[in-house]
Amino acid sequence: MKKTWLLGFGFFSISITWALYNAFVPFFLEKFLTSTALIGFMMTIDNYFALFLQPWIGSRSDRTNSRFGKRMPYLIIGMPLAALFGALIPWHTSLLTLVLFMVLMNLSMSLYRSPTVALMPDITQDSKRTQANGIINFMGGIGSILAFAGGSFLYEKHSSLPFLSASVLTLICLVILVYVIKEKRDAIAYTPAEEKNAVSFKGQWNRPTIFLLGAIFFWFLSYQGVEAFFTLYGKNHLQLTEGQSSFSLAFFSLAFVLAAIPSGLLGNRFGKKLIISLGVIGLIIIFAAISFVDALLPLRTLLILGGICWAMININSYPFIVSLGKEQSIGTRTGIYYLISSLAAIASPPLMGGLIDLLGYSALFYFSSGGMVIALLFLLCVKDKGLSRATTESNASTSL
């Protein structure tokens, strides 16, 4: 557990960077672009890299064997580069330079995101992974809170300060991880896969995995739409200031942080599927309710409830996917998880932006609530009897 808490610094750096990116980059883009759909498309750049790079890098890290371990080399290269290009984003001088810095930062983050996530199951026993995921997401949530609360304050001082702060914190987190995590010492079973026995995507598709990935796609479709456009929703629909809009997201993140570890414990106690289902049902209701809210206090109250429900979903979903495969496939299945979530993130902002252009910002939470309904239907198709055999049958089960 001590190693898990320290590993959380990796998630802390990722979360604070993405939270700032999603909160403030739309304001930069809005200066050059009038179409909300086009802004939404530009906000999906990171997911195109995630779509192609992260599955490959996750699988590649399963087979990497260096003196730093399987995953750590990717962090050592990617985190400093991401810190550099992230700090440059506010210093753009045109749309071209803004997009260039965005692309380079996202490319750098794609180098280390999957290996960072895969480190958790590497150093954690299977029976403790849901609880461990709660711990590291707790740390990630702290990063989001600092981003939305502290970032809002710094942004009003100067637009570069939040990004510069995140870059410094990313470098500090890398030093902590390199110093504390020694993969060959700390891994449960340090066995890099050989090239000739490399784990492939083909062997990962069993029925429980297919339905669970369908659910993951649709709940991320809903969540990413809200994340990408909430600050603009607050500014243009609720007439909040830019600082009030971004600070409101801190309430969601605070609730996520407080619910992260309890959600992992509940998943261990009552089963991941049940806890995820309750979270999805909760967000269906909450997103629908936000559509009727026009005041700050009820909005932030609903965001707190939404953060709790999102923790119930997000904390349990990644261990759920990993549990359906073999230990040697952790990096590969991590890549698949990000492949599906990235597909959702690519589809959601342009689709939501187009709906907003046509119907107005009120469409945001109607769309998100509907996506959660579809996610629930997929989740209900994940049969418990299939899950009990998943670990031993993952490569032999029915394929697409």
Give structural attributes.
400 residues; mainly alpha; Growth Hormone, Chain: A; 16 helices; disordered C terminus
Describe the structure.
This protein is mainly alpha-helical and 400 residues long. The protein has a single domain (2-184, 204-391), classed as MFS general substrate transporter like domains (Growth Hormone, Chain: A, Up-down Bundle), CATH 1.20.1250.20. The chain contains 16 helices and no strands. Helix 5 runs antiparallel to helix 13 (330-359). The longest helix is centred in the middle third of the chain and has 30 residues, at 207-236. It is globular.
Number of strands: 0
Mean pLDDT: 82
What is the assigned CATH homologous superfamily?
MFS general substrate transporter like domains
CATH topology group: Growth Hormone, Chain: A
Number of domains: 1
Element order, helices and strands? HHHHHHHHHHHHHHHH
Secondary structure class reads mainly alpha
Beginning-to-end CA distance, first to last residue: 38 Å
Number of discrete helical segments: 16
Q: Which range best describes the helical content: under 10%, 10-25%, 25-40%, 40-55%, 55-70% or over 70%?
A: over 70%
Strand and helix layout:
Layout: H1 2-30, H2 36-42, H3 45-63, H4 72-88, H5 95-122, H6 129-157, H7 161-180, H8 183-186, H9 207-236, H10 242-270, H11 272-290, H12 296-323, H13 330-359, H14 363-380, H15 384-388, H16 390-393
Helix pairs in contact: 1-5, 1-6, 1-7, 1-9, 2-13, 3-5, 3-13, 4-5, 4-7, 5-13, 6-7, 6-10, 6-12, 9-10, 9-13, 9-14, 10-11, 10-12, 11-12, 11-14
